[in-house]
Amino acid sequence: MTIAIIAHDGKKADMVGFIKDHHQLFNRHNIRLIATGTTGAHLERAGLEVEKMLSGPMGGDAQIASRLVEGEVDMVIFFRDPLGKHPHEVDVNMLMRLCDVHNVPLATNMAAATRLVQSLE
């Protein structure tokens, strides 16, 4: 199973904490993490293993969307900052739309992500 990890700048620390909190569960179930570049770099600095794509504004959201369409992504956890402006909002919307089109679970906040991750048990 592969989970895509994305976080807007204001949510990256929350994402690192969330992934660290659930790291043992991911290891136990042999879950592979992929992430946009900057989010992935934050995860790596926290000692977590992740495959990094480009940063979101440079095409990382689109890279993850491509893998999702090819059936290589089973779940997306995307901590969005709903109050910020994001230059790559078009890519973000495309990724979220493709989650709906391909019936891939998508969590956009910590509460939803916790529920999705708990379903793995």
Automatic annotation (TrEMBL):
Q: What domain of life? A: Bacteria
Task: Give me the residues that bind substrate, please.
Answer: H8, K12, T36, G37, T38, T39, S55, G56, H88
What residue stretches are annotated with the MGS-like domain? 1-121
What UniProt keywords apply to this chain's record, in alphabetical order?
Answer: Lyase
Please give the PROSITE patterns that the UniProt record associates with this protein: METHYLGLYOXAL_SYNTH, MGS
Q: Which reaction is the catalytic activity of this chain? A: dihydroxyacetone phosphate = methylglyoxal + phosphate
**Which one GO biological process term can you cite for this protein?**
methylglyoxal biosynthetic process
Q: Which GO terms describe its molecular function?
A: methylglyoxal synthase activity
User: Which InterPro entries does the record associate with it?
Assistant: Methylgl_synth, Methylglyoxal_synth_AS, MGS-like_dom, MGS-like_dom_sf
Q: Which GO terms describe its cellular component?
A: cytosol
Q: Which Gene3D superfamilies match?
A: Methylglyoxal synthase-like domain
The EC code for this enzyme is 4.2.3.3
* PANTHER family attached to this UniProt entry: METHYLGLYOXAL SYNTHASE (PTHR30492)
Family (UniProt): Belongs to the methylglyoxal synthase family.
Function, as annotated, reads: Catalyzes the formation of methylglyoxal from dihydroxyacetone phosphate.
Protein name as annotated: Methylglyoxal synthase
Q: Which organism is it from?
A: Flavilitoribacter nigricans (strain ATCC 23147 / DSM 23189 / NBRC 102662 / NCIMB 1420 / SS-2) (Lewinella nigricans)
* The gene coding this protein: mgsA
